[in-house]
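Form 7-S
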Amino acid sequence: LPFTEPIGNMVIDIGGGTTEVAIISLAGIVCSRSIRVAGDKMDFAIIQYIRRKYNLLIGERTAEIIKTTIGNASPDPQNLETIEVKGRDLTKGIPKVLSIDSEEIRMAISEQIDAIVQTVKTVLEQTPPELAADIAERGIVLTGGGALLKNMDKLLSEEVGLPITITEDPLSTIAIGAGKALDSIEILKQVVIKKSLLDI
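Output:
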């Protein structure tokens, strides 16, 4: 992204613990919002859903596998997928296996998806008109593990009416970006100084 130029860039990072949404221009953050709703909360929602509906207890790792295998941000009745889930029956206390479909998982994580969509809309509403025009032309960049959730880009695009581009390697983008920032220490200093001034 040409983040040092006078051009508006919008980035959505859906990580494990938080979702960060920011408008970046001239090596600074123009406006941003962070919420503690991301991959981990989706996993917890899946655990709770399966516990309530099927009286089956599953672990966090199983919930993550379910999410990454058949999780879907948008309704897709033409491509319904299923997965076998193994856990402990809370009534009998013994292992149990059952089948769950992708529509159930979509409903289980719908509250978290809605929260992310609303956060993106809030940041767009706060964006200065000149930068909003740039974003309308250039679109939004989506990164983080949550970017890999099926149809997440499609849903966001439909909700905000803008093109969404997923980074080439969403899981490593932040680490790669941090490394590049350290290689360009003068630019990093500018960003830190601007943030410090905003905090005063």
